[in-house]
User: Fold these one by one.
Assistant:
Number 1:
Amino acid sequence: MLSRCSSRSPWPLQTRSYAISVKPPKVLEGKRLPRVFKDKKAFQFNWYTKILQTTEHSPLVFLRHNAFSAQRLVKLRNDIAAATKSKPSLASPTPIEYQPQLTVIRSSIFGAALREYPGLDVTAMDKMTNEVSGGLAVLSLPVLDPPRLHAILRVLDRSFPPRKPKTEEELKKELEEKNADPVTPGRRMKKQRAILHPELTVVGAIIDGKVFLPEGVREVSKLPTLETLRAQIVGLLSAPSTQLAAVLSEASGGRLARTLEGLRQGLEETSGPDAGSPPA
């Protein structure tokens, strides 16, 4: 009877959470490096390694989540898909598929995959993951598209606004309720389903093999698209030739003689009548 009562505790269970660590692990006696995973951990390690290998051409956004249910996670995936869905236009009548993938990761094994990934800025990555613990997820984008990245960030900000810090009165009230005596002493407390308040924050991103902090991710999302940049470069390169063509067209035909005549008169007026006489 005692074992049954102890196994059905009314208090919610707390799971252990690990932070991502990119620092080299401590070498213990009897352990060899690099670490070899088995079974499920080996599958996760290989999966995370493949995700990191795509960061050369596909951005990877790191998200910290807390108090998420399965239904809320499904809704988040649907919101991201709806925000990045392209609409048909005159330039592209057929919408281009853009499917971001949200993956909930196991931070300890993902940290091992990060340590094995070559060419990564360990200092910047450690700064990004420093003091970040709890549930982590990565959002893989097919290609770098700043407007769509900006749309995703807007969806996250709108769906998960930052919570206000609790006041001293609220903290004191919670402490009093926690330490208060039960209403019916001697009876087992009824289980109550905890009210979840989901939180989601952007931790950083890996774009083109470089690590970006949250501020840098938002700056990247404000950039124009690649097609717009190409059009601007073409415009800058074609501007001098366009100006030269305009000058030549103005000076074509009979305008050329008038242009030269005006230039000669201007030179004569500048030199003056005594320009050719020797000095006294």
Number 2:
Amino acid sequence: MSFLSHFRAEELGQFLTLVQQSLRVRRHVDLFKWLQGDVQLFLPHGVMIAAWGDFSLGPSWFDVVSPLPGARTDRLCETEVSPFLKRLFDHWLSLGRHPYAIELKDEMFSPPPHTTGGLKECVREMSSALVHGIKDERGRHDCLYVVLGTEVLMNPASREALEVLLPYVDTALRQVTPLPGKHTAKSEAAEASLDLDGLGLSPREREILDWVRNGKTNQEIGMILDISAFTVKNHLRRIFQKLNVMNRAQAVATFEKLARTVRT
């Protein structure tokens, strides 16, 4: 790709270091330092919004990484940010899943007119945005990344940079446990459905089963929860025993059947 072919030896070394650093991200503070560190050399930005979930229903989770005082995840309002992010995601799909740049004054990007709190702070003093995503065909757990910054993001080179960097950004994010309270009402409802009496599942087992329901592999679940794939496998074995099933598909089907029974 031309983004890499233009690098000098020193820049290539910096990029390889950046890639290696992404594999060591484990905490939210690590993610913040990484994005505000060497990533800025290749993709200068002030705010990054990450959202993930089934976008046909609206994103279930979102997070903001920014040094700006008011740009914080816990200040985002779901009723404002969820339709806003879904609109950007749908436009990304319409472009064949290619990254795109957009000026914040563009009507398609504009947040709701009465936007307050975190979303307003995210766009304050920003003039443009880059949008790219990752479509999860297997688990319907899609990811959208919105990078906010100055007019430099409108350059084709910035789109190329985001396209090359995004797999590493996504890997880093998947290794970080979401901060408490950083999910929408949809995910809260999903978690509430897991908290059913009589199943005998521990909180960790319910958490793992929820990720299984979202199509995640043992290795992916281990990265998300910061445990080994072997530990995930052991938890699943106990889940199968408690639900009296033989495999993951049966566990999900049995759980959802029991959940419907409890709700009715």
Number 3:
Amino acid sequence: MITVSNLRFRYDSGSTDVIAGISFQIKKGEIFGFLGPSGAGKSTTQKILTGQLKSYSGSVLVAGAEIRNADRQLYNLLGVAFEFPNLYEKLTALENLKLFGSFYDRKLIDPGKLLGMVNLYDDRNSLVGSYSKGMKMRLNFVRSIMHSPELLFLDEPTSGLDPVNARIIKDIIKGLREKGTTIFLTTHNMNDAESLCDELALIDNGKLIVNGTPADLKLRFGEDKISVTLRREGFRILSEHSLRGIGSDEDFLETLKSGEIETIHSCEASLEDIFIKVTGHGLTGTFSDNSDHA
């Protein structure tokens, strides 16, 4: 669905590339997570992939077409929901959806149904200017899917949402994947990335650092050991053992017999751990050179 080859980009006001020769592919029907700290190049990449920035070098093929040469028909296939909603605040939610729906040459999902999906139906006739941030985020999300796009770009889709509404949005995203929608997701939320994404790419200072499935990355960068927590004679004891030859490890087997087991699990790395390991800093870091172009 998307093929990016040796992509580079530099803002007119900058002296260095904010995107420094990255390449990746996104298959049709998968959720591709693009992770990195503020200033890493996530938003710039997303703006290139959606055709907003055209003065790049390299190649960006979206649905088989170079995105800088995209025509109206290609944009009919795209849905976009950025982190900061761009809505008409003097219109109601229904009026917003009807207005944006008029831009597409495709069959639209009923606006009332969309609002009902994200618990906004009762507020359908309220001015968007009176909405909370979370309500605007939900409206912005359903606006991006109202034309059943084949390729959906989401930027922090659960930002500002309470746990219940965040779960609703994630369930809708999973449902879209099951129907074959390709989704490009940028986020700082590691739980969202791990629970939603089929493939992840970590970007730092405009360079692609590592990519793979969440499970593969956690195994690749995790520790090759197992941790056991047990209670013995009133005390909680933590014991760690190498995974290699675990079935015949006498020390491990004796540990299992020596008390009441409370927890037992492999020592997988978290996505935050992986990012720190490969970059030397966390996902919440910022970079002074490019921080205006996150």
Number 4:
Amino acid sequence: MKKCGRMFRVDTLVRTSMVTVLRTAHIPELMRYGTEEEDEATHDITFLEAGGLGLGTGDEECFLREGSMFVQRPEAVYRYTHSRDVAPDVCLTVRLAREFDNACDRELATCDIAPRVTNRLAYLRWRLASLLASADSNAIDSWSADLLGALRDSAGDTDRVHRASQLRWYAERVEAVRLMLEERYSERHSLASMASSVAISPFQFARIFRRLAGRPPHQFLLEVRLEAARSMLLDGAAVTSVCFDSGFSSLSHFIHTFKRRFGCTPSAMRRQGIKRTGAA
């Protein structure tokens, strides 16, 4: 859906229960140069895809160029400055639904107005293109939660930022393994086998995966297995079958790990699913 405002065009790329993703592009012949103030009503996380603009709020002022990102909060007043000698900006904005305001406030409490684009944030931006093409609402919501977490952690991330070409090379390999683990979580995977599948040494792969995905490969695989187990249990599958079908090799370890993650035993989760199905 496309809407034209007074100075820019707005394209709604996707809408889920958690976020709306928008692309805004200023129309050159309608541009108004100088500084204007706007009151924001939502939590917005914006990637600057082209052009540049000045941004300020309170005592903070900065100038942003292509590749930058900025964060807007509800009930704050922002100053936007456009100059004739700078190309009109094109922005990709992730707008969080108002019901998540409290969670956003917590996650973004220490986040600057224009956070440093870390490798993890750049990887998440890279991933967004394929998620938008898939229009998978659950995957986009999960990505949005990862984005908030990456912004929360960005202030303490001092790793050297990769060049765009290098980041893309790493991102393609991390993504290939991530998708493989999501599809083949029931199989046995070692660090060496995962690294070998994308032709990287195990030590480099472990470092790059954690840097971009925000967690080590084994923790990512564990989370995938637990979510798969949860889904199977809610569908009424037997606990022992779920244990081995989701990739665990020990029933006692599965029960302990599942309870630690979800706060209830697999049997209790299964009963919830059966009760829900019966009520329906």
